[in-house]
Amino acid sequence: MAYELYYWDGIQGRGEFVRLALEDAGADYVDVARGSEAKKQGTAAMMRILESRKDPYIPFAPPFLKDGDFIVSQTANILLYLGPKLGLAPADDKLRSFAHGLQLTIADMVVEAHDTHHPIASGLYYEDQKEAAKARSADFLRHRLPKFMSYFERVLDHNPAGNAHAVGSDTTYVDLSLFQLIEGLAYAFPHGMSTFNKRYPALAALRERVGGRPKIARYLDSNRRIPFNKEDIFRHYSELDQEIGH
Amino acid sequence: MAYELYYWDGIQGRGEFVRLALEDAGADYVDVARGSEAKKQGTAAMMRILESRKDPYIPFAPPFLKDGDFIVSQTANILLYLGPKLGLAPADDKLRSFAHGLQLTIADMVVEAHDTHHPIASGLYYEDQKEAAKARSADFLRHRLPKFMSYFERVLDHNPAGNAHAVGSDTTYVDLSLFQLIEGLAYAFPHGMSTFNKRYPALAALRERVGGRPKIARYLDSNRRIPFNKEDIFRHYSELDQEIGH
């Protein structure tokens, strides 16, 4: 039976980290909220689960995954579950734990990237928190981005199996997620990120490599890949796009 | 061999979610950064690991746990690892996954609680982001806190094994973490949280019950429990403490 991915229509968002794993593995899946009402899909189908009055194991928010009757919520938890099934997790338990820790660190950075444009409230317009957004973006680019990226670069460089992968000697969902994270930041901060490849060569090479994986490349070219846009987690506002720190 | 917990000295922070599980289980552990240099402990011992130039599997940030040579990072990942060993996780795999999803949702709320007083940058003083903090706190208390707490209350009420526990019929690390989350919010926002028990009766009862567990009660009374303070994730500033929404 096909996996069912539930995530907001119209944005890549956190759902994209799961999509990339499903796509790279060539897994059979339905992107439910993007489907048609006629097929009992669409956003309404997602909301029926989130707003269920009787079911016990309901997620707080999308993305979530249904595998048969079983629901898994939280992006990193979904990848923890899917990774081994899709051949995108290390075989070793300790490396799996390390991979999950990395994925949670990526998730932390995604929150911070989101908050660069919405530091006060997700429910308010960007225009109503623009001054705070400028201050938060400046700090993010000067301090936080280099701190996270130096760490991920270090993880690649210290991988005993070589710096082509974050964990072990094969591609895992962590590599795919690092790709998405860098893509998102490059969309949001093209000026700041213009020095990225020189500063973080192992990450830059990983990004190239993941983007060139045949199934990922086909996916990125397809209409299943939603373009980056200004409703999404990664957003481009030129006034927020500054130099990154060291 | 004793577990080694590594977390910043002087604050409860994210380390506290792990401490509560270790304490409730009566596990043998060392709180390394709070130990003495003479015993090769202290903050310097923690920094040696974080700044290691050669080890491959280094965490991004505290808390992390060492079990022998094995390092686990990220609070929720540590609890995922420790839960079964400490008898604080459900036996069933699907319930374990649900428990982990809940713990990640708690972690998300902890980030938001932190950002009420530091919406612009962790590296800046509160006083330098006070106006933004007021706006963020107002939104957090009006919208976010009720959204999260209604969800957790719903999880308790829909637990097929009864509303005394978040998952299954026994105490898990999720119950302990919900206790800590509510304690922290009550410290930070005593005025806003004054209506909490009436609004969220199942969570209020859970908080009472966890606080009354003999080992937890002894721990809370001991000097191992660091008092809440203004360097911590949960902070009390009267100007941020407003009514919570519905």
Task: Explain what you see.
- The structure is a homodimer of 246-residue chains.
- Chain A has nine helices and four strands, in the order E-H-E-H-E-E-H-H-H-H-H-H-H.
- With 246 residues, chain A is α+β, with helices and mostly antiparallel strands.
- Chain A has two domains: 3-86, Glutaredoxin; 93-240, Glutathione S-transferase Yfyf (Class Pi), Chain A, domain 2 (Up-down Bundle), CATH 1.20.1050.10.
- The A-B interface holds A 54-60, 70-74, 76-77, 80-81, 94, 97-98, 100-101, 104-105, 108, 111, 115, 119-121, 123-124, 129, 132, 135-136, 139, 143, 148, 151, 154-155, 158-160 and B 54-61, 70-74, 76-77, 80-81, 94, 97-98, 100-101, 104-105, 108, 111, 115, 119-121, 123-124, 129, 132, 135-136, 139, 143, 148, 151, 154-155, 158-160.
SSE order and pairing:
The structure is a homodimer of 246-residue chains.
Chain A: E1 3-6, H1 15-24, E2 29-31, H2 43-50, E3 64-67, E4 70-73, H3 75-86, H4 93-115, H5 130-157, H6 173-188, H7 196-199, H8 201-211, H9 214-221
Parallel strand pairs in A: 1-2
Antiparallel strand pairs in A: 1-3, 3-4
Helix pairs in contact in A: 1-3, 1-6, 3-4, 4-5, 4-6, 6-8
